Amino acid sequence: MAQAIKHPTEHKNFWRPATREAITGWLFAAPWIIGFALFTVGPMLFSAYTSFTNYSITNDPVWIGTENYTNLFNDERFYQSLGNTFWIVLVKIPIVTLASIGIALLLNMDLPGGQFYRTVFYLPQVLAGVAAIFLWKWILAPDGLFNNFLGLIGIPESARPGWFYDPMWTKPGIVIMGMWWIGGNILIYLAGLKGVPNSLYEAAEIDGASSWQKVVNITLPMLSPTIFFQVITGIIGAFQIFSTAFIITGKDSNVGGPDGSLLFYVLYLYNRAFGRTGQATLQMGYASAMAWVLFGIILLITVFQLWLAKRWVHYETEGR
User: Fold this and answer.
1) How are the residues of the chain apportioned to helix, strand and coil, as percentages rounded to the nearest 5?
2) b/e map of 247-270 (b: 16 or more CB within 10 Å)?
3) What residue ranges do the domains of the chain occupy?
4) Which of the following CATH numbers is that of domain 68-318: 1.10.3720.10, 1.10.569.10, 3.40.50.300, 1.10.540.10?
């Protein structure tokens, strides 16, 4: 029998379907990969290089070795900014976490008006950024809405907080402002609570567990991956706090607020880069060194959190 004649184009299609699919996928991902390389990896590598140079944008980088890092660790304002930032991390993150979980637990009870309250708690997310910061700057002014309320309940004027004009109250004011934006956290925790199987609660009720025991032994362990994610991202965000302090302190020479109590790390980095601290202008090499030190701090804390997570984060797939 004569051999079947192949179509002339059949032998040219030598790529396998899986290969063609992979190439198509890489082509679709290419714009993101190119953008990531050009606008993220490239600037990071350049920043790593300039951290070892004397660079001010207007002049070519001059290699000075580790001088920027040496000067950085001998800079008192560096330690002050780092201390202020750690204060926010250690105080704000626990308060925001506990408040978000507590409100999410209440909203998860399916009480009357639950949908309305979910909208109310998330609504401040719409009014974010500069407008909200100016709003809270007015509310927490010495003669602002909050202090006027304290006067109505009988607190004398001398005992009312000075907020952003008093170094003792500036950072607590930042924490209070941070509570304005917990609506997004509440929704994430609420989504995590919806994923807890009802069968676990039913079994606990049969065993005679109280509501508190169900929260401690079922809800929190099942919610631990969500808590872990929120804590990690919250810590990273707290270390990068900038716009709040920048807007509150204004553009005067007293950057960082009274006694430098609002001089957070990224704000000080920005000031060194653009010359708002009294030093020479455009100290980009010094600012790059600060950026890499911050990267190292966040990396160490994240690695520690990942190690610590093995002791308290529960995943259903682990069978624990």
Assistant:
1) 70, 0, 30
2) bbbeeeeebbbbebbbbbbbbbbb
3) 10-50, 68-318
4) 1.10.3720.10
| Average confidence (pLDDT) over 265-276 | 86
Number of other CB atoms surrounding residue 93 within 10 Å: 18
pLDDT in tens, 50-62: 999 999 888 889 9
Amino acid code (one letter) for 317: T
Residue 220 scores a pLDDT above 70: yes
pLDDT at 320 over 50: no
Strands (E), the chain: 53-54, 62-63
pLDDT in tens, 119-150: 888 888 887 678 889 999 999 998 999 999 99
Whole-prediction pTM: 0.85
* 62 phi and psi angles, rounded to 5 deg: -115, 120
Q: Which DSSP string do the residues of 151-186 spell out, in sequence order?
A: HHTT--GGGS--GGGSTTTHHHHHHHHHGGGTHHHH
Burial class (CB in 10 A: 0-12, 13-18, 19+), 174: buried
Q: Is 53 helix (H, G, I), strand (E, B) or coil?
A: strand
